[in-house]
Structures are given as structure tokens and as C-alpha cells.
Amino acid sequence: MIPEGAGVLELVSPHTEELLAEVPSSTPADIDAAVAAARAAVDTGPWPRMAPGARVEVLRRFADVYRAHGKEIAQLITAEIGAPITFAQRAQVGLPAMMIGAFCDTAQGYDWQEVRPGFFGADIHVRKEPVGVVAAIVPWNMPQFLTMAKLVPALLAGCAVIAKPAPETSLDALFLVKLFEEVGLPPGVVSVLPGDHTVGAHLVGHPGIDKVSFTGSTAVGRAVAAACAANLTKVSLELGGKSAAIILDDADPATVAAGVRSASLSNSGQICNALTRILVPAARQQQFVDALAAEIAAITVGDPTDPQTQLGPLVNRRQQQRVLDYIRIGTEEGARVVVGGTERPEGVDHGYYVRPTLFTDARNSMRIAQEEIFGPVLTVIGYRDEREAVALANDSGYGLAGSVWTADTDRGLGIAAQVKTGTFGVNQGYTMDPFAPFGGVKDSGYGRELGREGLEGYLDTKSIAVAAGV
């Protein structure tokens, strides 16, 4: 189901700054109709009543169709948000394609029902049942990955899903409707409702919704949680981050620089689990700064459709200005720009571009070290010893991701155990492995996506006691 209202959303290319497309904008009537269709699909339709294995078969067919259209989807995302085409193919589409298969494997081997001996002698049957109608609210930065992380496990659980994409990424979201039609999904099981924040607010507060899965900013996440509380709607929140990379004194600067660049600046730094605070031993700080500066200065910035481009534009003018403002703030606070800055990248005369920027001589209390910038800006902070490094990493309102870089894996695991965060990497950024649960703590939200935990987020547990001897 797609909206039928007369309103439109105008999508602007972040590279050319010209009108890219117009798509229908959902109305309250569209939302009510989608919820009614989803309720019918859950309450009386065949989808939640199918055997779990039958739902797996449908989603495996969908995976085949999705992979067949991968090139088209990647091109849409590059046009919408300016993600370099090679990154779009590999991460924006390739990773979701793998994730569909991984979720199907998880569901195939999942224990949907078990029998336990009860304390009072009766058998206890424990069933896993679909939570019902799910509202999936998805941001623009990794639209297909984040949509699949919600939609696929919810469908495998037997739920119906109403997906609300960000306005900027409405095209790739609407494309999914056609793909689900190809595999014959029952009516009402999947709807896509493009629109602005008012559409999301109406959907989140709708009494016909059983579960909200939201990915976005911490500020909006708080409002979503409050709206869900009014109806006692279940909710999971994957919110912002300001993740730290702890570089230990035995790490190699060149290896660290290459790894941090990949984990921090992909998608122009518009990734919630990007490593944006680089904590380095003060005694070797200049070595790591020099290596990072050389790596960042070598990044090719430009047309996202060019396979040689490594960093494209930011998603829109508002985001571009936000990042430029933070670069100015960092300088005013006393941090020093080593590479980058507020000038437009060389050879680029249009588009929402920002030069990849590296700060040093920074303090962890600075705004550039505490607030999520969501752009290609990294901040190097020196530390005296491991205890201070861990304290600096934990000195943040966020707790989504993090990493440690060291020649000693056991030493790295010891650091990982001390950092208060939902995900962590040793000698790598967090890889978003589809078998591993992903989510945050503190202001980064609650609930988990991916892995078995991601499937269980769309299931309710029912226990049935059977009297003994009957």
C-alpha cells in the first residue's frame, strides 16, 4: 500500500541542488487506511497464521528479487542522499541483501515453541507469537539497511509493517512495494507511507499500532517514547552516537588511520556508529595525528556517481550548514584544524559538500567532542594512561558504539569490557554483522536489532499451563 493523497514531497539532489523527483505525501487518511489494512492482515489474514517456515520461504524469494534489482536501488540511493555509488552498492544495498538471508537463517533455526516442566507438575508450553502491527520509522542515512533491519524480522515473526521513510529517501522505499508485489505478499502486510515529521507523529500515536521501531536522533526518540507511553505501545529506539576509538600505545599509526577512516568517514560521516572521537596516547599523539591527516587528505571528494569518488555530499543544505557550524565552533573552542575546514572542497562548485576535517588539541568537554555532528569531522584527544582513556570514552551521554586498536587482542578485550556501550570493535569499527545484536545504551536508546535478538523484538511470549494427568 502506498499513499493516495494529493500532496507531494519535493526531493532535491544533494549533488546538483536541482529537483530530483516529486513523490506523494501521506495524509492522516492514508495512515488510518494503512493501519486498518495492517490490522486486518494481523487479526484475520493468513500471514501470521502461516508456519514460520512458510514465511521464511517467502522472504527468501524476496531476497532473490531484491538482489536482482540491487543496481537500481543503489542508483536511487546515490541520487537521493549523495552516497558514493561504490559505497551504495556495497553497504547501502549489498549489506541489506546479506541481512535478509541471515534473518531467514535465524528464523529457520529458531525455537518458536517449547515445553517446560512446571514447578507444580503441569507442563508449561511457551509460544512465541507476532507482536502485531509494527510502525517502522527510518532515517535517511542508511535507508535500505535500516528498513531491512526492521521489516524483515518483523515479517518473519508474522507481523504487518507500516514503514515511514525519511522524505529524502522516499524513492528507494517506494521501490520496495513493487518488489513485495512480485513475491505475492498478502494485502496489508507491508505499507510504505512517505511524509514529513507530522506523518511519523500521527503513525506513532495511532492506537492501532502494537510496536514502534524508531531509528533517528535522541531528541526525536524521546518524543517517540512519550507518544508510545500514552497507548502503552511497545517501542525500541536506536538513537544517536558519539563513539570513541581508543588507540593504545602499541598500535600502528598507519593501520589505525586506514581503519578509522573507513569506520568514521564512510557515507560522509553520516553514520550513527561512526568513530568520531579519536583517543590517542599523549606521548605518541603527533604520530597518530600525522597518519590520520595523510589518510584524510587523500580522500577523493566529488560526484557520487563516479566510481572513483570516496566521499560525496551531505544529504541536504541544512545538514551541510550544521556541519560547517560545528567546524567553526570547534575552532572557536580552541581546537586546531589539521586537515579540512569550512572552505568548499577543491574542484567542487555546487552541491552540499564539506571537506573531511580533522581536529587536534581538543578537550573531551568541547562541543565537537560531546555532540553528534553527523558529518565528516573527527576530533583527536590525548590521554595519559589506559584508565583515563576509558574514562574519556565513557564521558559521553551516548553509548552506541566504540572501538579499541592494539597489537594485543586480550588487552583490547579488557578495554572493551570497561566501555559503557551497546556495541564495540577490536581493531575495527563495529561491522554491523547480521548475526550480532546492534543497539545502544544511555542516550543512544534501548532495544536491539539484528541477530536473534532482532527477531525476538517483534515477538510476544505466551505461556500455557496444562494440568497434569489430563
UniProtKB/TrEMBL annotation:
<keyword id="KW-0560">Oxidoreductase</keyword>
<dbReference type="InterPro" id="IPR016163">
    <property type="entry name" value="Ald_DH_C"/>
</dbReference>
<protein>
    <recommendedName>
        <fullName>aldehyde dehydrogenase (NAD(+))</fullName>
        <ecNumber>1.2.1.3</ecNumber>
    </recommendedName>
</protein>
<dbReference type="GO" id="GO:0004029">
    <property type="term" value="F:aldehyde dehydrogenase (NAD+) activity"/>
</dbReference>
<dbReference type="InterPro" id="IPR016161">
    <property type="entry name" value="Ald_DH/histidinol_DH"/>
</dbReference>
<comment type="similarity">
    <text>Belongs to the aldehyde dehydrogenase family.</text>
</comment>
<dbReference type="InterPro" id="IPR015590">
    <property type="entry name" value="Aldehyde_DH_dom"/>
</dbReference>
<feature type="domain" description="Aldehyde dehydrogenase">
    <location>
        <begin position="9"/>
        <end position="464"/>
    </location>
</feature>
<dbReference type="InterPro" id="IPR029510">
    <property type="entry name" value="Ald_DH_CS_GLU"/>
</dbReference>
<dbReference type="Pfam" id="PF00171">
    <property type="entry name" value="Aldedh"/>
</dbReference>
<dbReference type="InterPro" id="IPR016160">
    <property type="entry name" value="Ald_DH_CS_CYS"/>
</dbReference>
<dbReference type="InterPro" id="IPR016162">
    <property type="entry name" value="Ald_DH_N"/>
</dbReference>
<feature type="active site">
    <location>
        <position position="238"/>
    </location>
</feature>
